Amino acid sequence: MKPDSAVNAPVDSRGPLLEVRNLHMRFPIRRGMMRRTVGYVHAVNDVSFYILPGETLSLVGESGCGKTTTGRCIARVYSPSSGQIIYRVDEQETIDLAELDNRELRPFRRQIRMIFQDPFSSLNPRLPILQIIGESLKVNRVASGSELEDRVAMLLQRVGLRPEYIRRYPHAFSGGERQRIGIARALALNPRLIVADEAVSALDVSVQAQILNLLQDLQEEFNLTYLFIAHDLSVVEHISHRVAVMYVGKIVELASTEELFNNPLHPYTEALLSAVPKPDPRLRNKGVRIRLEGEVADPGNPPGGCYFHPRCRFAQDRCRLEEPPVRELGQNHWVACHFAEELELRGFESIGAASNDIG
Amino acid sequence: MTEEPTRALKDASADPAAESTAETRIVVANQWQLIWWKFRKHRLAMAAGVVTIFLYVVAAFAEFFAPYSAGTYSARHTFIPPQSINLFQQTDAGWRLYPHVYGFQVEVDPDSFKRTYVLDETVTYPVGLFVRGEEYELWGLFTLDLHLIGAAQYGDPVYLLGTDRLGRDVLSRTIYGTRISMSVGLVGVGLSLLLGVILGGISGYYGGIVDNLIQRTIEILRSLPTIPLWMGLSAAIPLTWPPVRVYFAITVLLSLIGWTALAREVRGRFLSLKTEDFVIAARLDGVRELQIILRHMAPSMTSHIIASVTLAIPGMILAETALSFLGIGLRPPVVSWGVLLQEAQNVRSIATAPWLLFPGLAVVVAVLAMNFLGDGLRDAADPYQA
Amino acid sequence: MQPIHTRLDNSAPAADGVLLDVRNLQTHFFTDEGVVKAVDGVNLTLKRGQTLCVVGESGCGKSVTARSILRIVPAPGEIVSGQINFRKRQGGSIDLATMNPKGREIRRIRGGEISMIFQEPMSSLSPVHTIGSQIMEAIMLHLPVTKREARKRAAAMLDLVGIPRASERLDAYSFELSGGMRQRAMIAIALACEPQVLIADEPTTALDVTTQANILDLIRDLQQVTGMSVLFITHDLGVVAEIADEVVVMYLGRDVESGAVDAIFHDPKHPYTRALLQSIPRYGNHDRRRLYSIKGIVPHPFDRPRGCPFHPRCDDFIAHKCDRIDPPRQFIGREHSVRCLLYAGAPELNSDKELPS
Question: Which of B301, B329, B355, C208, by CA, is between 20 and 30 Å from B122?
């Protein structure tokens, strides 16, 4: 086993629903007339984590950190370049989704579903809602005819839309309503794992709250497991049980939500937490502001050693040369930093974000 | 707050029946309805559409619209200038409605033997709508003798747009020319479309080497100068071929170049649709590839393809006209606008009989109308964009 | 370095410090399908050196408000009524709402006295001109300087907005810069002529959170240095709390509540403001309790509710009142106004519709 196998240690007796081991995804960079491959963008670089049944694991990071690619590898939109995606079929059996071809994947596509970020491009504008939501039921021969209509109507009702909307086209709906339709589509086949890729990022605050509540209700009702991909830390903090922070294709820190927000061990996590605007003017200019200099590293040409070292305020020579392994420090708290034990980093609370509730 | 106002909660779900009918019409409107609503706002394109439909109706019922058949000639009436219709005639009792043209007398210049026509206002030939004239077979099914316009008395020399060197009616021949010229465009584009969709689809769907090969072929084809290429190819058409076969050979020739633009359009759409979220979602739903192409990708492309096809037809019409004008396309006795223009080629006829250029005007109208129509269709093709 | 805030010093200070005073602005869009009342009665007051945030959800008219001020509302939009009183640098007040949007006078104000930055720096910067030439163009349009001086000043501007190696970057093209750097370059262009007012329309929405923090810091720092006023358009309440002095909350083209940032966050009056604040996820809810959410959706612009535009979604809806009476703007504090019938008739409230001076 690799040194970072600790990440994979299941803590739940039932075992994780999904376990990702050393996942890599490289996209070739092609140039010229004959489209020769001149290099690779290493979008996902040796990522390992597990998701327990019924929990919400969030992947956070800035644009280009590989969180969406990781999600898409798990939903098998992409075939990963290497690594394993171990999926628990039942009590006894597990299967590596990364090895399966399209035909073999079919039964698992029903159990692992995806919700997309863009509520506009993810629904075919030329099909009515009945066909958009009903498509998976139809092709998997679960229902057809009037039974299909009934089931789609029920799904619409479950996500908070009127069943009469069944014959409408997507253009008749607002962004939030479209996202509900996308959720209904994901729910249609009684899935176990839902990959929610920035599912609320494109929505207004009030609609975002509605969708987050819906996702939580559905999780309780159907015992769903979420892989929640987001860049908004307040949303992540609200919805997740555990959080993994990604930077340039790698997981730099993974811990329970409370632990990660209160006691970050990676300087990048600290900087991210510090950058979140706090919705309380009285906290302004309180606590320490940590600001990152420079740019996110190019995943096609990352720096040596720790990828974060050019922007890290604690960087030392070792960081430039040696890539930090993922280590477990404390209960289920993994971090990839040479100096994680020595650094005194500030959590969200001490940066100044005590919750204040309105009236 | 000192005063607690009375509060009541309104039922969250509004009455669905309260929604206006206009709104309910929009929410269940499919792609084609939305495209139509958007297209309808484009006035110029609407007008162009009407003109285009009119041209195709004329082409379909050319025998009825034309006063004479394409081949009817009169050796006594060569190079007659266009006659203007007078609606009223003065009689002793005053003006009366009597549509007619004046007769003419031939004068021959004793030096040059040049014939000139002089109006003879003493002779009038009545003109009418829905008149009986030459017999014709409409689509080989019905034998009729009804013409939209012509001499009220069968046999009167009425040539509204004049005649050519053999005494054939220019108006009738232009109307017959509509049939060939407009259909060359349609058939040629039909063939291009077939080639374009298949090759462009393969190119966009498979990608890789196949894509590379097809794209390079397109680039080579597009880099060839078209007129010399067509000239070379049409020179290979045997002179002994019957006119119908020449006609098809020419359309095939035109579409050999024409498909490239459509193939590019199809490929581009394919590539962008392949990564659309809703196509990925369908794949994750377990929809099979063929179904994805037919149900999700093709409908998103058809409206764009129809628009590009409409824009490609005028090119075809112009190409046919150019080829026939150069004498390497269609040949008499086939009547097309290009063939007619070829007859107006020499300087003498332009100077003495400029009305022979009338088919050129028809080309301009047809090409403009199809371009405006295609423009409107292109704008309406994606009704989902704001 | 060239001093770049010289001109502000000799500007005549306004008596009340009000630079921009928008009163009952109405901007409507006359489309084929009907009239969209994108802005339908907005009042805002921007004071010298302050930051005013206009906050609201998509479609509330906040961007159109900003564009109305600079008279760059796209067709078929038109200002149908209201005043936009702006105190010019040389003194004297003018009403921007009555100006010819293509006239010489408004063009002198755009960029010279009021500048604007947008959400998408990539589409607001020209890809075929260098950053430097775009800044120089802005400078030479409004100030009587030579090309050489303009270039020097442009380099100083890039330095000011924190772009490293500024004089080299003058010759860079916008696509050679990262998103954050592009937004900095945009700000440099906007501030090149020391405008009195910077209008920032969602300038950080397309940026990552760490970059957003840097840009917000930058705007705040530049405000300290130049003394400019900022009109900041955003949907993010976190950003509002970080940067605003005054806040205007908009809903369906109306200024439903406005006041000092502390009052808006800690003593919100309008049910919509309260609902918005309650719907943002806040730190510390580890039991993952449900968020408060406003029921329903924003109505379609052709389908504006009668009476108070918020009444179909309001928890405090008063039957036969809120759906009939259009609530007037009333002051419940010195600078705290609200459009809500809950507060009508309360004895200590000042229901005077005019600004207290």
Answer: B355
